[in-house]
Specification:
binds flavin-adenine dinucleotide; 10 helices; 416 residues; 18 strands; 26% strand; alpha/beta
């Protein structure tokens, strides 16, 4: 069923009785060409592009809960491509370009809103770092724009420019950055994949990976064995657990990341704003809530809820750049389990086991990567060679010493 303004009008006249389910609820078949483990944004996007762009549609996406129950429905919805390193920037720019045409492509309103992202700086040295980053972005074909404090005072007068600890000296804009309604992305990709014949199997947990003579044969699930020529793991925070079914240990730790939303307010924050002297970022949702977050809780866990020290830290950081936020009442907070890699960059790679592929290590930046991750993973699954923008996301890069350490923090997942 194609959606259009005319359809909405027509359904309104006929009691909204003609809408169809967005995807089927099929029983799992005995065998598929590709089984994708994990019905988050990345798994669904992979299925969609495999079917649409690479002509492989005998696919199952196997999800232990329901579509959108993981991080794709828990993140703070920010999209951007303001990366610096060669292994990262072309990939994230590809992703931003795919976001730009996505709603028309899969005929679904994901509320993509390119209302800009601003990274604030607080010192001359930090300005120099951002100038370097902006130049790297421009060289990779992305957009970037430096703004001094006078310009920011005009655009964002509510910021605390003269804070005695963290005076605001300027910032770097990426005007094409912004926000997207996160769960609509999962639903849009699910609907698109289903329309190309992909089976989306919810409430089906993978409990084992069958390997014989070094070749992956399929998966064991809570609904029986499913054979597959290729198995593609895509389970974000549970990467370590699922890959342990294949006897693999990953350079990844699981941590919880919290997010917060306030009561609805009149429009006050035009785009996304990030603090330069700590971890705090904020945007305003279409319903008016201020959506913000900060650092991960610094301990390993699979719990989808965090603790108070991070709440305090996030609140302090917010108050440092916009004291008015202290007047807003917090409505909700929640958490999601992050697959933190040792250098802060992801993996899209084959494993040493024939037919077993891995996508993960997205840390807290994987939502913006959803379209490119799906596209590049589909490319790898279909052709067995990495996509040209994802050649560096290899599992063996630590052994080779080719880290993609965007922040220069070293092998400290809690600092990326
Ligand atoms: C609070 C928060 C804020 C964030 N903010 C941003 C942001 O602003 N911008 C950004 O770019 N990124 C952000 N992220 C990160 C981003 O959400 C993730 O990196 C990304 O969503 C991960 O990919 P995914 O969508 O496929 O994950 P998920 O949606 O978690 O999908 C993985 C799926 O695998 C399923 N699964 C796990 N184990 C099994 C199994 N054994 N069998 C079957 N299924 C299984 C899970 O149920 C889950 O649905 C944020 C994350 C959080 C938690």
């Amino acid at each position: 069923m194609r959606y259009s303004a005319f359809k909405v009008f027509l359904q309104g006249l006929t009691g909204n009785k003609g809408w169809q389910p967005m995807w089927r609820e099929p029983e799992p078949k005995a065998e598929y060409d590709v089984v994708i483990i994990g019905g988050g944004g990345h798994g669904l996007a992979t299925a969609y592009y495999l079917a649409k762009e690479f002509g492989i549609s005998n696919i199952a996406v196997v999800e232990k809960g329901w579509i959108g129950s993981g991080n794709v429905g828990r993140n703070t919805t920010i999209i951007r491509s303001n990366y610096m390193l060669p292994g990262n920037e072309p990939f994230y720019e590809l992703s931003l370009r795919l976001w730009e045409g996505l709603e028309q492509e899969f005929n679904y309103n994901a509320m993509i809103s390119q209302r800009s992202i601003l990274n604030i700086y607080h010192s001359d040295a930090q300005r120099d770092q951002f100038v370097r980053r902006a130049n790297a972005m421009l060289l990779a074909g992305a957009d970037a724009e430096m703004a001094d404090a006078d310009q920011l005072r005009k655009e964002l007068p509510f910021l605390d420019f003269d804070n005695s600890r963290f005076p605001i000296k300027g910032g770097m804009f990426q005007r094409r950055g912004g926000t997207v309604r996160h769960d609509a992305v999962a639903w849009g990709y699910a609907r698109g994949a289903d329309s190309h014949g992909v089976d989306i199997i919810q409430n089906c947990e993978v409990t084992g990976i069958n390997i014989e003579n070094g070749t992956c044969q399929g998966v064991q699930t809570s609904r029986g064995i499913i054979k597959a020529k290729k198995v593609a793991v895509c389970v974000a925070g549970l990467s370590g657990r699922v890959m342990s079914y294949a006897g693999m240990r990953l350079p990844i730790e699981s941590h919880v990341l919290q997010a917060f939303v306030t009561e609805g307010l009149k429009p006050v924050i035009p785009g996304v704003i990030t603090f330069g002297a700590g971890h705090f970022y904020v945007s305003q949702s279409d319903k008016g809530g201020l959506v913000f977050g900060g650092d991960i809780d610094g301990y390993n866990t699979y719990a989808q809820r965090g603790n108070l020290p991070v709440v305090e830290d996030v609140a302090e950081s917010g108050m440092a750049i916009m004291p008015m936020i202290g007047r807003a009442r917090l409505l909700r907070s929640w958490g999601g389990v992050m697959d933190m890699s040792m250098d802060g960059s992801p993996f899209i790679d084959k494993t040493h086991i024939d037919g077993l592929y891995f996508n993960g290590g997205w840390c807290y930046g994987g939502f913006k990567a959803t379209p490119a991750s799906g596209y590049c993973y589909a490319h790898l699954l279909a052709k067995d060679v990495p996509h040209s923008t994802a050649t560096e996301f290899r599992l063996d890069r630590f052994r080779r010493g080719h880290l993609i350490d965007e922040k220069g923090q070293g092998a400290q997942p809690n600092l990326h």
